[in-house]
Inverse folding.
């Protein structure tokens, strides 16, 4: 994948394009009619510099979420509705979105837009720099928490990340932020080797990525907790613990390490080629809101001997 293929191209809102989208935004939705329409509008506005598609994946909602997405799809050709017949879980909805996506890059975000969509540019910049997968992080240096979660949820999230790192040796700072970006090779690997339907799908992504030697980066984000979050904390904790056991068993059986081909690590920052001038036309619009000074990426190296695509 070369940088010359990855430059965003503006397209008129609602005007069909002969070329496939460069970016597929996957928006998993479950009973989000209260926030869905303004969230779609904000995503389309913030990412207007891209030739994109917005996939609203309705996870068996009981409210009017699907109808809202359907109306948007008639109004704007960039919006597509993908429906699951019944509620399967966030992991299943995201996987369904990846399978339907046509873009070279994919961005995953929560329906309430807790993570500022403008930060997508920083995740996509990481992909352009050589990462296969970028995790938005509320704990990386430079992240901004504009409205914190309740103390219990915050501590549960930290505890879950610490336990997961202990079990799988991932070394990640934030596994549960719902803002992620990945390239098509990583998406295809995940479609082949991941199975978790619930909230712990992020963990399986990281375990699968590490087993395949995929290059992963953590990127600081601006994040604000939304009071009307649909997450049921008790249920999410219990189901996630069960899924962790399943992931551990699959990893021990060699499931994640036997599929696909491995890729190399992120380019060494001492490599002169990493300091070459950026291509003409940034990966993101020049007017994007910058993260605070001092922001940094946390690169998670692979422990595997690199193998490169042919």
């Amino acid at each position: 994948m070369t940088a010359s293929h990855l430059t965003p191209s503006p397209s008129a809102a609602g005007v069909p394009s002969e070329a496939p989208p460069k970016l597929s935004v996957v928006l998993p939705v479950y009973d989000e009619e209260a926030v869905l329409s303004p969230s779609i509008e904000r995503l389309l506005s913030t990412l207007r510099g891209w030739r994109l598609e917005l996939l609203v994946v309705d996870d068996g909602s009981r409210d009017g979420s699907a109808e809202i997405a359907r109306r948007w799809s008639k109004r704007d050709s960039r919006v597509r509705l993908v429906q699951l017949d019944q509620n399967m879980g966030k992991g299943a909805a995201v996987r369904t979105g990846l399978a339907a996506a046509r873009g070279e890059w994919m961005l995953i975000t929560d329906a309430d837009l807790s993570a500022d969509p403008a930060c997508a540019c920083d995740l996509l910049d990481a992909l352009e720099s050589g990462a296969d997968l970028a995790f938005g992080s509320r704990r990386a240096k430079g992240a901004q928490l504009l409205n914190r979660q309740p103390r219990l949820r915050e501590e549960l999230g930290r505890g879950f990340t610490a336990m997961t790192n202990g079990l799988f040796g991932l070394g990640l700072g934030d596994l549960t932020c719902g803002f992620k970006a990945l390239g098509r090779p990583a998406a295809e690997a995940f479609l082949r080797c991941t199975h978790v339907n619930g909230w712990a799908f992020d963990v399986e992504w990281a375990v699968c990525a590490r087993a395949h030697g995929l290059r992963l980066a953590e990127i600081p984000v601006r994040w604000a907790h939304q009071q009307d979050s649909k997450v049921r904390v008790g249920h999410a904790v219990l189901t996630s613990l069960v899924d962790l056991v399943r992931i551990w068993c699959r990893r021990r059986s060699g499931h994640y390490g036997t599929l696909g081909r491995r890729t190399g690590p992120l380019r060494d920052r001492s490599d002169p080629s990493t300091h070459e001038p950026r291509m003409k036309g940034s990966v993101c619009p020049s007017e994007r809101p910058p993260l605070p000074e001092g922001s940094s990426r946390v690169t998670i190296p692979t422990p595997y001997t690199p193998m490169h695509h042919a």
Strands lie at 23-29, 52-59, 79-84, 105-108, 133-137, 144-147, 180-183, 216-220, 222-224, 298-300. The domain at 21-265+295-300 is CATH 3.90.550.10 (Spore Coat Polysaccharide Biosynthesis Protein SpsA; Chain A). The radius of gyration is 18 Å.
